[in-house]
Structure formats: structure tokens, C-alpha cells
Amino acid sequence: MKDFLCINDFSTEQLKDLFTESSELKKLYKSGGKDSSLAGKTLAMLFEKPSLRTRISFQVAMADLGGSAIYVKPEDIGGIGKRESIKDMARVLSRYVSGIMARTFEHSTVVELAKFAEVPVINALTDWLHPCQAMADVLTVYEHCGRVEGVKIAFVGDGNNVARSLSFACAKLGMKMVIASPAGYQLDAESIRKANQISAESIRQTSDPAQAVLDSDIIYTDTWVSMGQEDEKQKRLKDFEAFQVNSKLLSLARPDVKIMHCLPAYRGYEITDEVAESSNSIMFDQAENRLHFQRALLKKLMS
Ligand code: CP
Ligand code: NVA
């Protein structure tokens, strides 16, 4: 395992090993322990888009493991692939740091970085995928449901990067996912086919949120307007109107259903304040688990 770009690049066993390591490190740090596996190592963090969770949790994870992180805004380096080619950047960075983490628009940017870097490259979100989020999500599901196998997730909203990575994670780990999206915003057919090839009938699509949440263990949502789609905002707000996770939708689900959101949440749009604040919501545990998963990932890739 050199890079972490897409969940599909890994076997179920490798993913489970990462969860075991995440839980062990979580326990260690919660009890005041310390693991210095990355002492003296540096992670370069390249961000073409804003971030709260990803940036801070990776930086804290590096410090926890005895290493350090450098945050790089594209304007500081003249843009990724603009002032110089991505392949030159990847090779230069490999001479300075022990790992590169990147959040980019184009998915091909992280693929190209990984191809030419001699050090591990981590996908910290692209327009196509958000694998670190999906792994933290599955860890959270495990902690709240006591199992992963057979857990049913209703994803209500956009068939986007978060939905795509989660669908691959579900297929790899024996979970079932129903994605309820309006016409024109469904997860692409090729991704569904890939997921269902990993595990038959693990992913299903519908245009009816009410039908999706019936009998689900988890209701998951994400923004209707992802970073880079700001120009489509008005149209999207209208098209997604019937896909809000609100108390009416919640009333159709099991009383103990858990509400998940990768955050940032746009309250009043994809989720109401009432649902976000309800006792069903586990979104801050989910956000916390970004740190616990990424500590394990960094240790695995960089030590
Ligand atoms: N969920 C997530 O990736 O959040 P940030 O965009 O704040 O990193
Ligand atoms: N789908 C969102 C996720 C943010 C963490 C986006 O890409 O903006």
C-alpha cells in the first residue's frame, strides 16, 4: 500500500486492518498514551479548496505521531500544475517530505501526484472521491451499531464524491446503501456497477427519500452544492427541495435511526437544525473519527 486514493484499491482485509489500527490508536490516545511512529517525518498538505476537519485533523494526527505537517495554499506555490508540472512538483516534494496529502478539484491531479511521487499520496477529497471521510464514517457506524455487516444506510441527496466513496466502502465491508437523489443527480451508473460487482446488490438507487429511509439504520446526507458548484447553487436548491432530511422524514424511519453528515452542514437546506441537533445525530462522533482514522492511515503509510 503506497498511496490512499480510492477505497477500491484495497482489499477488505486491508481496510479492516486500518479500522483495527484506528480503534487501537483511538484507545491509546484517549487513555493519555502516545505513539511516536512518525517522529521526524513531515507531511505536505496541498489544498485547492477550503477545509476545517480535514486540514486540522491531519495536522493534529501528524503532531500526535511525533511528526509535523506543512499547509500549502495553491497561491503560495503558483497553483498545482500551473507554475510547474504536477510530475515535477511530486518529485521535488518527495525529496523534502515523507508524505503528501492533497485536496483538489480534478481527481486526475491526485492520481498524477501519486504516479510521480516517491512518497505516499493521500486523497483528501477530489470532485470524484472522499475516501478518508468514508473510512471515518464506517468506523463511526461500527461504534454506534456494534457491527458493520448488514447495516443499511439511506443516503439522501446528491450522488457526489462523498456518496461515491461511501458506496465503495459499503460494498467492500458488507453494508447496504440506498441512494435517494433527484433525477440528474444520481450516482453514475459505472460507480454503481463497480460497487455491485464487489458485492452484489449492495447499492440501490431511488428517487423517493421516504422509501429509502424505511428500515434503515442510518440516514446520511451531504451538501446539495459541493465545493466548485457554487454557480449551480440556485438551480440545485430548487432541484433538491424534496430531499431535505427533516423531522417529517425522520418520523418515517426507525426511532433509533442514526443521522450522519460529513459536514459542513447547511442547516435549513439538506438538513434541518432540529434533526442536526436531535439525539439521533452522530455527526460530531463522525467528525472526531476523521482524526482517529487518519492517525492510523498516516502510521500505516509513512512509518
Ligand atoms: N468533511 C470534510 O471533509 O470537512 P472539511 O471540508 O472541513 O475538511
Ligand atoms: N460534497 C462536499 C463534501 C465536503 C466535505 C464537497 O465536495 O464540497
Question: Can you tell me about this structure?
Answer:
This protein is α/β, with parallel strands linked by helices and 303 residues long. The protein has 2 domains: 7-130 and 289-302, Rossmann fold (3-Layer(aba) Sandwich), CATH 3.40.50; 133-286, Rossmann fold (3-Layer(aba) Sandwich), CATH 3.40.50. The protein contains 12 helices and 9 strands. The strands form 2 sheets. It has a 5-stranded parallel β-sheet with strand order 7-6-5-8-9. It has a 4-stranded parallel β-sheet with strand order 2-1-3-4, sandwiched between helices. Helix 2 (53-64) crosses helix 12, helix 3 (86-96) crosses helix 4 and helix 5 crosses helix 12 (283-302). The model has no long low-confidence stretch (mean pLDDT 98). Bound molecules: phosphoric acid mono(formamide)ester (CP) and norvaline (NVA).
